[in-house]
């Protein structure tokens, strides 16, 4: 959870941050908040509903980059909750022949709405076979695990 993006520095943002975090912790095996030291103090005595870890980064660090790198490091079942578009990092990440940062974000970002504090559910397209075009099918592969199921997919062309 990109908590600075959710919290946005206002105390009125703390309650929705707690609700969103508790909801995510109840739905998923783990929730990780990436934040700044000032918010850690406010979160110290919170009783979480699930397994929640709070990671504090220096005010001199690029917290957006830390959020993205943490999700990449934690693997294919890690998702990032943020309404940030990370445009600076997308511009910096020039890669060819590999999954681009923009493509990765399209698959791994859960967006939230500050108006009603709701967030995107995991995409349902990964749940069933779809015909992409007349000769291509999207085939989801889900491996059941004790935590969040591991998801992958294939595009099959005949």
From TrEMBL:
Domain of life of the native organism: Eukaryota
Name recorded for this polypeptide: PRORP domain-containing protein
Protein species of origin: Necator americanus
């Amino acid at each position: 959870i990109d908590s600075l993006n959710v919290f946005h520095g206002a105390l009125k943002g703390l309650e929705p941050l707690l609700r969103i975090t508790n909801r995510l912790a109840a739905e998923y095996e783990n929730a990780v908040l990436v934040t700044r030291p000032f918010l850690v103090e406010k979160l110290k005595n919170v009783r979480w509903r699930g397994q929640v870890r709070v990671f504090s980064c220096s005010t001199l660090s690029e917290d957006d980059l830390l959020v993205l790198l943490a999700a990449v490091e934690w693997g294919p079942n890690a998702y990032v909750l943020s309404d940030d578009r990370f445009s600076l990092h997308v511009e910096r990440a020039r890669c060819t022949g590999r999954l681009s940062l923009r493509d990765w974000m399209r698959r791994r970002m859960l967006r939230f709405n500050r108006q009603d504090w709701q967030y995107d559910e995991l995409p349902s397209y990964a749940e069933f076979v779809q015909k992409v075009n007349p000769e291509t099918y999207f085939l989801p592969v889900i491996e059941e695990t004790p935590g969040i199921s591991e998801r992958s997919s294939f595009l099959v062309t005949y």
